[in-house]
Write the structure tokens for this entry.
Amino acid sequence: MESAVATRDLILHAAERLFPIKGFANTKICEISAAVAVSDSTLYEHFQNKEDMLFAIPQNYTQRLIDINDQNLRGLFANDVKLSKLIWNYLEFLVDNKDYTTLLLFELRSNRDFYGTQNYELIRQFTKPYREVIVGGQNEGLFRPELSPSLILNLIFGTIDHILITWLLENNPSDPLKLFDNFRDLLESAIRNHQPDADEKRDKRKQILNAAATAFSQNGYLKTRIQDIGALAKVADATIYKYFSSKEDILFSLPVENTKALLSIQKEHLNGLKDTNLKLEILIKDYLHFLDSYKDYASITLFDLRYNKLFYQTEGYQLFKEFSRVFFDIIKEGIIKKHYRAGINPYVATKMLFGVIDHLIISWIKFGRPSRVSNLSDQICSLILNSLQT
């Protein structure tokens, strides 16, 4: 029985490799069987036909996506945060599994018969949390209640499809993950249940901060002028001064906004977790994903704040201390519970954690290595956890 399952998996993996290269229509059964070194008749013992193989491919990938969502939604309560997390998970997964994405978009989406298969039902199960989050947000007044949840789902997945099709076909495509913030901004504006006065004020302030982040990241804080920020934000200089007293006030406001978001993520993801290793691993990966999503801010944190003496007298630094204290407390808890070695200094361990991430950011920002800091999240987690464990 195990041998039969293994043979079926080998056949399916061969089909996965060949379909994106040659196209489903141009791939022959004999080519798939030859790739696995089995006869055509053996192949037909496991699959009815070539289409049966194609329709079986999404099963493992969709189950992995369901598991990823289950893991990452634990402890989250805010429906807008949940929706953002779900979309990021999906987009990142498809970018990381390019061959599968090619099959999904060019072979499965266009196949009318696929929509009647059991594996398509699994995809419907994958989208269920999206629908629940949207309905939950509507019930609490966060999202517009008059919108059909199905329409919002179509907006989300249709946009992602179009972004990824261009990414797969163009010679010099934009990294889809770099478009995440732009998409999220448009989506939030489309579905959020607006309170005009308060929202307009928040949006204008956020617009200025986002423009400042871009300007500071590209030009450096010292070389950036208020006029440069105004031009990017498409507001007059006088409008900026309604919200901020100076360029320095803008710089020191950036870590306040972003660290509050990080603290919120920490609180939600730690809720109910007991295992110290799991706590550290989740928080490290959350932090790296956050930096991936806000590369301009990551650049500013390192080059304009970390080595700026005045920063250490600001509210932003106090919030960052609160953020890093969570890592310190988890390490200390692990020592007390004897999960970690007794001789460890949690202060030094925390410095080591943020130190490696800071220097990784330098390489990422200045030399493009790695392409995303979260690509090294497993290795960083392994380094830190191995340094702590008995």
In short: The CA atoms of residues 176 and 212 lie 23 Å apart.
